[in-house]
């Protein structure tokens, strides 16, 4: 998509060189200072100076104050003209155009500036295919901005009675960036410096050219007036998901404004792209990137209260947040932990905040360590056929008041990064032993013989103990024998963005109706890590029994004399006792060469939060399982923290009501898993057509299609009957959760070494408590679970034969799935019936090693 756009832009730019030019330089019809005494104004700037050289005309304007206001009768830049604003980087200049003939400004040449340039012409601004803009910040507005607003508040809304006031008003014209045009903000010179922004706003806005804002923001907004506020990281807006500015278009009654369309190329590396209006169309390429320093985001926004709103990604459109895997940049796990903790806190703040003017921003949960594509509509969200929305290992969050439609051949992709290369040495962690590390090994802590020793551990072989309130305040990680607790050292190990985003991400679709057509694809697949061949350091301890113990396996109940450093020769010399060490590499080797290998990481989640769901598209939920991934995973850890030796988990489909801080009770939905006919194909000719009446308030899923996804998790929370009528299979180790007043399983369900949980208390997360629940019962106050006659729940552990060529007998089964699974059913105010002839099999498997 990027290559196609680049080729198209180059061709369009070449063609634009031959179009007729407006007059160059300071001339009638070109750049003409406003001489009308009623509107004349030239504040904090010297008069323009024009020079000519090598066939080009340069108009230089020296700014003398931080906020300059220049009034023009016409502001047109010819093919061979360069307008240069001589200003400091933190200065801004407002160019107001008061054209008596009500003509739009045409930019066909170049504009240069070290600071911020605003062009305000209510009749419109057009950047032709030959234009080139190079500034720190650019604002092009087909609207009015007052002198007092500009001097006192700049771009940001003043507050009146707690409400933000419009910054730009009376938008009458169109801002158009034609194919071939180039608009770019300055590249920051360091990672601590922010990038610039491009803000285009008017009655209608369209970009067909090329906009680049490295570590900055590109905003296109259409409406009648506009309120603007600062985004993430500011005191007044701490819970924002936008790095840069947030904009809220406002509309007068019966307005025809609001069309925003990108058919060109917008690139914001480590930045944000925002399209906001009433009818938002992303038909081109909108590309952001993510690093450990800053995540990339894309926002496609309507007001959530605007029933006329519509957001669409068009055929062949690419909306993407990619990984910028620059090896120079890494971050500590503790930094990721802080971002995750902040996310939960900010979700609560976002939920408590009154939407007001800025109701075009999502109320869905956000993970600040992950990239994000955020889409909000007061009407419909449509992912049209052939479009791609991609956030590698990140988040796609779409919410609509009416319907979210993923059409045939549309693709939503949050698959994890594949082939992330890491060094073998990254598994090594050096630990300085003190009493804190030995707090659960008192025999050695009290002797003090291991204190101050620097030793090496292998982070893959640690034992994980999750935090427990009142016992452990944080997660703990012990060496295999329990001798040392080293959790504090793990958070200080550097990792690249590829490791952060190798896990599959999350697609959240929330609306009154969520529809995916046959041929649509939602990719949740897990990524992979390639560990390169390399050396691992090892440490050995001298036991009181005279034997050597590798630290990774040293038992806590053995008293150790110290770290082994070789044969010790102790003798007196010059009145002092000295010790010589003679190391034999065959005894307690201190380095070990290990061959490289590939590790699969967890797949992601598809969350459908809607009372009506028609899911006929494909869900890709697969994971790669490396030959070393033979251990069962810890249920308490997220995918990133899992050991490289633990098996990866396939993707999850969740049909449940979600709020701003998480789970939020249940919709009144009937769920049936069986043989279900497709109905969404009828929407191909009319995406706004109504669904069949019998499908409203339901989620009917085809069992064969669902089994083909290979899901690692299926979560169903509904305040209606949930019925499984046909055989259903989940991946090995999979989990089926049903929360409903009535649950009936009438066919076989298989999840080898997995779990099935059934209940009727729907969890509700609030800003004050994450553990409330809503009791789901029928009208008579009862509830029930039935495992019907002849139905079988197959939760057996897997059998495998490691001696056979080709490995396991049961295909994907491995030693990670040898234990039998579990069934838990708890129906409050209800009944549980396992009918005659039904079977619950939780027997164990085995492995022949």
Amino- and carboxy-terminal Cα gap:
49 Å
Output the structural class.
mainly beta
Mean pLDDT equals 92
Count of alpha/pi helices: 7
Low-confidence residue ranges: 808-813
- Envelope shape: globular
Quick one: biggest sheet?
19 strands, mixed
Strand content: 35-45%
Number of strands: 80
Helix content: under 10%
Radius of gyration from the alpha-carbon trace, in angstroms: 32 Å
Structural write-up:
By secondary structure, the chain is mainly beta. Helices cover 7% and strands 40% of the residues. It contains seven helices and 80 strands. The strands form 17 sheets. It has a 19-stranded mixed beta sheet that branches. The protein has a 14-stranded mixed beta sheet with strand order 3-4-6-9-12-17-20-25-28-31-35-38-47-59, with helices on one face. The chain is globular, with a radius of gyration of 32 Å.
What's this model, at a glance?
The protein has 849 residues and is mainly beta. Helices cover 7% and strands 40% of the residues.
Topology, pairings included?
Blueprint: H1 2-16, E1 31-33, E2 42-43, E3 49-53, E4 56-62, E5 67-75, E6 81-86, E7 92-97, E8 105-107, E9 110-113, E10 116-120, E11 124-127, E12 132-135, E13 137-141, H2 147-153, E14 159-160, E15 163-164, E16 174-177, E17 182-185, E18 197-202, E19 204-207, E20 210-212, E21 217-222, E22 225-230, E23 245-250, E24 259-262, E25 265-269, E26 272-276, E27 279-282, E28 285-290, E29 297-301, E30 310-313, E31 318-323, E32 331-332, H3 333-352, E33 372-377, E34 380-383, E35 388-391, E36 395-400, E37 403-406, E38 411-413, E39 420-422, E40 428-432, H4 442-447, E41 454-458, E42 463-465, E43 476-478, H5 487-490, E44 494-495, H6 497-500, E45 506-510, E46 513-516, E47 521-523, E48 528-531, E49 534-537, E50 540-543, E51 548-550, E52 560-563, E53 567-573, E54 576-582, E55 591-594, E56 597-600, E57 605-609, E58 612-615, E59 618-620, E60 652-655, E61 658-659, E62 662-663, E63 670-674, E64 698-702, H7 703-708, E65 713-717, E66 721-724, E67 728-729, E68 735-739, E69 742-745, E70 749-750, E71 755-759, E72 761-764, E73 772-775, ...
Parallel strand pairs: 4-6, 5-7, 6-9, 7-10, 8-11, 9-12, 10-13, 11-16, 12-17, 13-18, 16-19, 17-20, 18-21, 19-24, 20-25, 21-26, 24-27, 25-28, 26-29, 27-30, 28-31, 29-33, 30-34, 31-35, 33-36, 34-37, 35-38, 36-45, 37-46, 38-47, 39-48, 45-57, 46-58, 47-59, 57-60, 60-65, 63-64, 63-66, 65-68, 66-69, ...
Antiparallel strand pairs: 1-5, 2-5, 3-4, 14-15, 22-23, 32-44, 40-41, 42-43, 48-56, 49-55, 50-51, 50-52, 53-54, 61-62, 72-73
